[in-house]
Amino acid sequence: MDPLKVGLVGLGRHGTRYANHLINDVFGLDLTGVIRDDASKGIPSELKGIELFNDMTDLMKGSDIIIIATPTDSHFNIASKALEMGKHVLLEKPMAGTVDECKKLVETEKISEGSLSIAQTLRYSPVLMKLKDELRSLGPVRWFEMVQSLEPPKTPWLLEERAMGGCVLNTGVHVFDTVSHILGDINSVSCTLDRYHNPIWEDYAYGDLMLRNGVEGTFKISRNGNSRSCYLRIDLEEGFLWADPLTCTLYHMDDGIKKKEVVEGQKNTLIPLLEDVRDTARGEREPPISGLDGMKAVNVAVSCYISGNEKREVHCRLN
Fold it and tell me: What are the structural domains, with CATH classification, of the chain?
């Protein structure tokens, strides 16, 4: 089977990661062209031989799959164009800056010959996959907590208007998608927003989540410390589970006994995502993380902003 041709839009930090995985790690995908915001920077030495395009349409015409790793405010227009041209699209999170843009992309995909997948990659964390599997046999969930703390952004556009939001929108969608995927859809949110170092956007947020199944929990998202952490704790009727995606470690406390397991698996979550997008483009499966999944996460992020600004609980149901 011939490799599928991939066009990459964006060659910043995330775009370069995609490029390196496509070249070195994923069979059946051929990175044939890239387009970047500043073409004068040319092609990095490790991508020698890959064509640098100046025209978006030309890049898309010669590609089966389009990967979009650009600032948030450009996601909607680029993804719309690719879907209208019948391309299979892998769109970096967040799916878009507004729920309305997300809805339009979902509708465009319905009439496209292509497909839309969203890069909410914590779903591929081996330890979170293990936690989700173990929950099936461990009884009802009583409470949960999810925390994601990252260093301040080094990417300039995350400090600018084109980010369309701060840590809640641009990284918090990972938290909201993970909670929804493992525990159930989010029904409402109460959120507090703070800003410490980012000149225009929030870089610290915390609050409460209520799921549609009645389970309650808390979250914290930050981008203002000098280190990073990420965990999901789930309290059960007896004991609790604690998953740390950064170390791929799962802790299970039951009857006073704490068990620790280092979970094996692919820690570079972009690799299995790219393999699934390849298989989607071949017609072998549905999109691994759908436009609806992406829209749900953005909807919770937008609800956080409303809650934080209006100091009230906000329901997250989509119309």
Answer: 4-121+269-289 (3.40.50.720), 123-267+299-315 (3.30.360.10)
